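Person: I have long wanted to understand how a fold can be written as tokens. Underneath my words sits a plain record pairing an amino acid chain with its backbone structure tokens. Those tokens are not coordinates but codes from a learned vocabulary of shapes. I should like you to check that the lines agree and flag anything odd. The protein I mean follows directly.
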Amino acid sequence: MLRPSKHAHPDRTVINVALLLLLRLRAKRLCDYDSLFAYARKAVVGGDVLFLPSLNFLFLMGLVEYHPKTDALEYVGQNEAV
């Protein structure tokens, strides 16, 4: 469960990094893995550690799909990933 605590910095949480990744994917619609990882590292201190949990969170929510042939992530939106 993702629960905030008084010790968690609001900008350095899985939810915040997932939001940043989602905004980036919504703007570009398709983004390769390496550039998305570089964006997370640049946007947030500790973004390299929070990248995979945030990406997993977006997969669980059904908002992104991974294309292994192109090594890219695609924003599919709500209720479109089945």
Observations:
- The radius of gyration is 13 Å.
- The chain has a mean pLDDT of 85.
- The first helix runs from residue 14 to 28.
